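user: Kindly work through both lines:
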Amino acid sequence: MRKEAYEKLERELRLLLGPETNWLANLANTSALLWQRLEDINWVGFYLLEGDELVLGPFQGKPACVRIALGRGVCGTSAQAGRSILVPDVRQFPGHIACDAASRSEIVLPMITKEGELIGVLDVDSPSLQRFGPEEERGLTAIVNTLMEKCDWER
């Protein structure tokens, strides 16, 4: 997607969420919107921090791993490091967790509050190599920022 398409997607997300602040409802609708709008993906969803591991949250795609330790796989590594990770070829990522054997590339973005608290990660997988680049990172960061702003994270 181009920059303009991600800007349109972020505006669409804002309209979809409206005044709703419930984090569960907003994550569910966001995963559905991304599933519908992003091309060439086979999984999109959220993992939420619970203690020292990530627990599966709302998603679209095949059934997934339920728990991921911090520092393990792409999601756990992104969460622990507090930064986005783009993986052009998941088979080259040490310790990659293969929930769907069809996944070939992945992008994971941490969800961090203004106070610096890690909430979880947004995970997007593709069956194509090198599907994600800087444009996706910028666009999906805007999506994550909107979620962080719109949700009441008290669970």
The chain has one domain: 3-150. Helices lie at 3-17, 23-37, 73-81, 134-150.
